[in-house]
Write a structure and sequence with these properties.
Elements (H helix, E strand, L loop, with lengths): L1 H22 L6 E6 L5 E3 L3 E9 L4 E6 L2 E6 L5 E6 L7 E9 L5 E11 L4 E4 L6 E7 L2 E4 L12 E3 L7 E3 L1 H5 L6 E2 L3 H10 L4 H4 L3 E3 L3 H5 L35 E10 L3 E8 L5 E7 L9 E2 L1
């Protein structure tokens, strides 16, 4: 009888153990990005709703873009994050959704989308495989983005932000463009300016020239930073963006080198400012660091 009772107790213990184990954990939550979709093309300046659905019992759900956390909520319900692309670079971006439960179990979903602006033709720099949009304006072909190639010296500086370009001193800028392209001359900038409407009488002046030609080549967003004021219409798909030069304030200005020297120690440049619709032509010292737009040979 004693053996029978012991056997029954062992059976009950086994059943209860298995039953309690089956209740621990369970399947991990599953999260899925339903919008946008993988490979989607998004216009710069557009605001989209990143939507994530969650199946199962989770306690944490989050969204990151290029590794930066954008939203994290302590719930297993579906979430939406409003993504304003005004301050995002014209390039491919990685969106990732993650969800977990109290036991650390979870899942992720990852997609890649591409932000574009205006120009559709691209050029791949064979030196570092960076891709650039390019645009035909009149008889010229220009990069539609600022150059971001690191030269062999240390005079080029990463300039983070929506521009994505690198700023160079003049000696580095002269050699930074890839084969088949070059740093434009003062004259080549004038050709561009006259094509977009600047008069012959204004184009040779120094200082702020013209009337609205700067707005013709400014991006439709990104100028003025948080205030987003001073944007252009980008009618020629040149998509000029501020270079976030902290000397003048984030989102307010960009200055590009030409290859034309003035009196041996300064160089003609071109500049845009968020509060002006004109284009500035002024000579600056060679040791300053400014942006580069390449033009085709």
């Amino acid at each position: 009888m004693k053996k029978i009772i012991i056997g029954i107790l062992l059976i009950l213990f086994t059943v209860l153990s298995n039953s309690s184990c089956s209740k621990i954990g369970g399947p991990p939550p599953n999260c899925k990005i339903t919008y946008p979709i993988d490979g989607q093309i998004i216009d710069k300046c557009e605001t989209i709703d990143i939507t994530v659905i969650v199946e199962g019992s989770g306690t944490e759900t989050g969204i990151t873009i290029n590794g930066d956390s954008k939203v994290m909520q302590h719930t297993s319900s579906n979430i939406t994050y409003q993504w304003n692309t005004n301050t995002e670079g014209i390039k491919e971006h990685t969106i990732k959704a993650s969800c977990w439960d109290n036991n650390g179990k979870g899942s992720t979903d990852e997609i890649k989308v591409k932000i574009v602006a205006g120009a559709s033709e691209t050029f791949i720099d064979p030196r570092d495989l960076q891709e650039y949009y390019i645009v035909d304006i009149g008889s010229q072909t220009w990069f539609a983005q600022d150059l971001r190639y690191y030269t062999s010296d240390t005079s080029c500086i990463d300039n983070s932000g929506p521009n994505g370009g690198i700023i160079y001193n003049w000696n580095s800028a002269k050699i930074a463009c890839p084969n088949g392209w070059h740093l434009p001359s003062d004259s080549e900038w004038k050709t561009l300016e006259k094509h977009i409407g600047m008069s012959d009488s204004d184009v040779d002046n120094v200082g702020w020239r013209g009337s609205i030609e700067g707005n013709e080549i400014k991006s439709r967003c990104g100028w003025g930073w948080m205030s987003d004021s001073g944007n252009g219409n980008d009618n020629y798909n040149f998509t000029a963006l501020p270079n976030n030069n902290e000397l003048y304030g984030l989102g307010t200005t960009n200055i590009w080198w030409t290859n034309t020297e003035v009196e041996g120690f300064t160089v003609f440049t071109r500049g845009l400012l968020y509060s002006k619709g004109q284009i500035e032509r002024v000579n600056l010292p060679k040791d300053l660091k400014n942006s580069v737009r390449c033009v085709k040979d």
